[in-house]
Amino acid sequence: MSTAIPELSTFDEQDLDRAFAALTAEVREQAKSLRSDEAIEAFRLNWLGRKQGRLGQISAAWLKSAPVEAKKSLGIRFNALKALVEEQRAATGDADARTASTLDVTLPGTAHRIGVEHPLISTMAEIVSVFQRMGYSVGLGPEVETDFYNFESLNFPPNHPARDTQDTLVVAGQDAKPLRDRLLMRTHTSPVQIRTMLEQAPPLRIVIPGKVHRNDAADATHSPVFHQVEGLCVGTDITFSDLKGTLDHAMKAFFGSAVKTRFFPSFFPFTEPSADVQISCIFCGGKGCRKCKHSGWIELLGCGMVDPAVFEAVNQRRIELGRDPVYDTKKISGFAFGMGVDRITMMKYGISDIGLLYSGDMRFLEQFA
Ligand code: PHE
Fold first, then answer.
1. What atom of ligand 1 comes closest to residue 338's alpha carbon?
2. Closest CA to 209 of 128, 301, 123
3. Which atom of ligand 1 is nearest to 231's Cα?
4. pTM for the full model?
5. Best mutation site among 156, 190, 305 for ligand 1, i.e. most ligand atoms within 8 A of its Cβ?
């Protein structure tokens, strides 16, 4: 691109005409090839740039030195040239118009990446669907819970040491309220057992997926936020055999029919008797390997028969709410169970650090797309 300005020997009309005709032709020629942002910017700088711009040079070299009688005619020509430059630049300013002439429809388009379910969510949904197929309906409850639903109604009395096993975050500034009304982040999905029984009379079967919180220091197997799937089955003649049969079936449905279950005595304030359930190791089939610490078994969930004290608490609250106390402990029994979704997800996908599930790291998440 030329940056020079024409020689001007005199300021008479003919010389001016010749010089401006050459410049006009040059502007028009250059304007034809303004197809990229770079080309447009170079064109602008060449003519209108403050330091090197040729209009500026013309003005400095000619307008200043022209004799008075030539100034008017020179000025008219100069303004016309400047208007032409501006006009050509404006004509290229419409980006759509520019691309329209250069649009190549055979190029691949801009890909919009669609999201996928997080592995925790899809695992939780799979577990829930196993129970839905056994006639359970899905129940949900709030993550910010009262002390009553999270602890007291589940037979964790105030100051009882069982509360120490489920330390959590509490909402500040509630000292004026009675303890049972104070808010905290729920430590388990079990409060939804109570909420469901307040709304529904027996018999009922409910499966409760959700997020829970505990004051646990984060490490490879602990996260202060994690997920559970809870279950509750209440009716007449519900026995421990029903509990065993239900969970054995559910584990086979989820992990494969070769999986075995076994039950050990355990303790939860809201179930009596309580049990921990182990499944035969899904990695070695029970022979013993690193994953099952060479025991052949993996601990997976907690469960038990609903403690009558829980039914009493439900009846009590139902009366307070003006509802019939229909959970008659002489006629009604039930079982409950709860499992950690994060551990199951980690087993299923071979994830060794729970923190990856909460990191938002795309390199990790992309593997589930
Ligand atoms: N809520 C218990 C926990 O989080 C698990 C559980 C649920 C145990 C239901 C028994 C019955 O530890």
1. 7
2. 128
3. 9
4. 0.72
5. 190
C-alpha dist (Å) from residue 195 to 154, 238, 283, 317, 325: 11, 20, 38, 10, 14
Atom 2 (ligand 1) nearest CA: 338
For residues 133 and 237, membership in a common domain is answered with yes
CA atoms of 335 and 244, how far apart (whole Å): 10
List the chain pLDDT tens, one digit each, 369 residues: 566 788 888 888 888 888 888 889 888 888 888 888 888 888 888 988 888 888 888 888 888 888 888 888 888 889 998 998 888 888 776 555 555 567 888 888 888 888 899 999 999 999 999 999 999 999 999 999 999 999 999 999 999 999 999 999 999 999 999 999 999 999 999 999 999 999 999 999 999 999 999 999 999 999 999 999 999 999 999 999 999 999 999 999 999 999 999 999 999 999 999 999 999 999 999 999 999 999 999 999 999 999 999 999 999 999 999 999 999 999 999 999 999 999 999 999 999 999 999 999 999 999 998
Q: Which amino acid is at 96?
A: D
Which helix (H) or strand (E) segment holds residue 146: the answer is: strand 144-146
| DSSP per-residue string spanning 24-53 | HHHHHHHHTT--SHHHHHHHHHHHH-TTT-
- Report which ligand 1 atom has the smallest distance to the Cα of 188: 4
Q: Ligand 1 centre and the CA of 99: distance in Å?
A: 62
| Atom 6 of ligand 1, nearest CA residue | 338
220 plus 91 within the same structural domain: no
Show the domain range for 333: 119-368
Specify the residue for token string 């982040």.
185
Ligand 1 contacts CB of residue 335 (under 6 A): no
Ligand 1 pocket residue status of 337, Cβ below 6 Å: yes
Distance 306 CA to ligand 1 centre (A): 11
Question: Are residues 38 and 133 both part of a single domain?
Answer: no
Q: Whose CA is nearest to atom 9 of ligand 1?
A: 337
Residue 334 CB less than 6 A away from ligand 1: no
Cβ–ligand 1 distance for 338 under 6 Å, the answer: yes
CATH code, 326: 3.30.930.10
Enter the tokens of residue 343: 């551990």
